[in-house]
Amino acid sequence: MGNELADEVHRRMIRHGSAEDIEECAALWVRACAARDGVAVAGVAERARPKFGHVESWIVAEEPGTGIVGFVLATKPQSGLPTDPPDAAVVSLLAIAPDAQGLGLGGTLLARVADALARRGHERAVLHVLADNHPAVRLYERQGWMPWGAPFPHSLLKRPTQTYLRDLGA
Question: Mind listing the UniProt keywords for this protein, alphabetically (predicted)?
């Protein structure tokens, strides 16, 4: 199967992302954020695009005839916030198309990227989540992510944000 990772449960092709996917993933990120926030916020795509230049692991879920319906992007250690543990890879972006949410795809992608990071020798990973994004917080906690440090205001949205850390060896 080459670069593909079978995903029979979701009947989607799960594969590694590539440079040709950047714009489609950035557009999906904007749609998912607008659905989460109830409004499109200027600057979301511009903040996301540079993260694709620091890829440590990038996995996309694609439906035939539809395109990319979800993706997760992890970046190299020290590519997140200055307060992040310096050795932790950063799960920078996780987005699911609004009409594909609630079907377990986010959990599948998050588990796959954690496994990929562990295989690459990372002992832990970090991510940042809006504290009021309760579905995302539940997902992260179910998969073993733990709050780390004090909440802080999101730099663009100014909403409380929490860092989460996961031991990838567990």
Answer: Acyltransferase, Transferase
